[in-house]
Predict the structure.
Amino acid sequence: MPGKERTSVRLAVPSLWPGGPQAYVSPDMEFYDCFTLMDVTLERLVLTTILSDPPHLDGDCQVLVEYLAEYDVQVIAVKEIAPCPMKTIKQEGIDVVIGLGSHVTDVIDSFRDEWAESVSSKQL
């Protein structure tokens, strides 16, 4: 979870078409239609962008991770993730959070709640 020193976080959520805050979160990192990218602060959602799936071979998560890194993604929120993609994502310096909700809006709310909790506990 981001520390209190960050004022915003670029969050990516693998989503079902058409993406965006009202979209369903993809059930798995391998089966998604697009990524919903959001700049999130503790107070609100600042910006939403929809990224199409980059061309890559099934099972080749390195291309996908590099693609997300080009967009300065700091955190990926997924329902489930296998160990290999998790390792590849973390090696690129991107954090992973798991199981925050079924809709992108659920993910945003849960992410901000956990972030706020971590900031509050660091201030104690």
Notes: The chain has one domain: 9-117. The mean pLDDT is 85. Residues 42 and 113 are 8 Å apart (CA to CA).
